Amino acid sequence: MVPSFDLIDVIKTIQKQKRFIILITVAAVAVGCVFFAVKKKKYKATAKFLVGNPLYTDRSTLFRNMETRYVDYFGGDDDLDRVTALLNSDTVRDRIIRNSQFQIVYNSDINTETGHNFLMSIFNKNFNLKRSEYKDMEVSYIAYDSVTAANVTNMAVKVLEETYRSYFVSAKKDISSSIGSKMKQLDSSIAVLTDSLANMREKYGIYGLISPNRQNNSSGDMKGGGKGYGRAIEEVQNIESIKDQLVTDRSHYISMLNEFGASSNSAMEYIKVITRALPPSGPTGPSLMVVAGVAASLGLFFSIMFVLMMAYYKVLNAVQR
Q: Is 281 helix (H, G, I), strand (E, B) or coil?
C-alpha cells in the first residue's frame, strides 16, 4: 500500500524544517555573492552605424545627364547582407585582430597556426553583430579590460568601412586605369595625325579649316593649286576627320576620369557611425542583486525538494516496516 503524502503533509514538513531551509538558502546566497566577487569582471563596448547606399556615390548618380531618379541615402537589405557577410568573414576578422594587437593583449603568437587560431576563437566568442528593423547595425565586443573592448569595437567598424569601400572604389580605379591606358594610345595617335596634317598643309599650302562634313567650306576658303592639290585636300579632310573623332573621344575620356575620380573620393562615406564605442563604466552581466536573488531561489527550491524527499522516504520506510 502506497502511503499518502498530501498538501497538508508538505506544509507540515516545510514548517518543521524551516530552519534548515533558511540555512541552505542563506548559504546559497553567500556562495552566489562570493562567486560574484571572485569572478573576473568583463566589459562590453558597443558601436552603432548605418550602411550607406553605394548607388548614391556612383558616377551615374552624381552626374545625371539624362534623367533624375530618386536614390535612397541608406542601404537596403541587400547592402546590410553584404556588410554582415564581410564582418563574418575570416579575412576581415583577421585584419581586426591584427590591427587591435591581439598578440599583445592576449599574449599569444599570431604568426603561428595555433596562436592565430586561439586569437580568432577569442574574437569569435566575444564579438557580436546585430541588425535592427530600423536598418541600423550594432557591433559589440566583450573583454576583461574596458579600453580593449572599446578599441576592438571601433577597429571592427573601421576595418569594415575600409573593406566595404574597397569593393566599390577598386572597381572604379580599375576602370580609370583602363581609360587612362586608352588615353595614352589616343595621345600617340593624335600626335601622329597632327604631324601628318602639319606636313601636308605646309607642303601644299592648305591653311584653311576643312570640315569633314563639307558643310562649312566655300570655294573662297581654298587657296593654292598645282598637281596633286585636289588629292591633298581630300587626304587632309580624311585625316582631319579621324583626328577630330579621336580628340572628341579623348575629351570624353577625360570627363569620365574626372567623374570616376569624384565618385571614388575619400569624402564619400559608405558607413556612417552614429554611436562610437566608449570604454564602459561598469562590467557586463548580472548585478550582485540579481546573482543573490537567483542563488536564493535555487537554494530555497532545492532545500525544499530535499526535505520533502527525505520526509516521504521516511514515510515509505515506516509503512514497509
A: coil
- Region for residue 150 given its phi and psi (left: phi exceeds 0; alpha: psi -120 to 50; beta: otherwise): alpha
Q: How would you label 194-233 residue by residue, b for 16+ Cβ within 10 Å and e otherwise?
A: eebbeebbeebebeeebeeeeeeeeeeeeeeeeeeeeebb
- Rounded Cα distance between 232 and 222, Å, is 12
Give the Cα separation of 142 and 128 in Å (integer): 9
Task: Please state, in angstroms and rounded to a whole number, the distance separating the CA atoms of residues 107 and 124.
Answer: 17
- Per-position pLDDT tens, the chain of length 321: 556 667 777 788 888 888 888 898 889 889 888 887 878 888 999 999 999 887 777 777 677 655 556 777 788 888 888 899 999 999 999 999 999 999 999 998 999 999 999 999 999 999 999 988 888 899 999 999 899 999 999 999 999 998 888 888 887 788 888 888 888 888 888 888 888 888 888 777 777 766 655 455 444 455 555 566 777 788 888 888 888 888 888 888 888 888 787 777 766 778 889 999 999 888 877 778 888 888 889 988 888 888 888 877 777 776 655
Yes or no: say if 103 and 117 are a contact pair by the CB < 8 Å rule.
no
| H/E segment holding residue 143 | strand 136-143
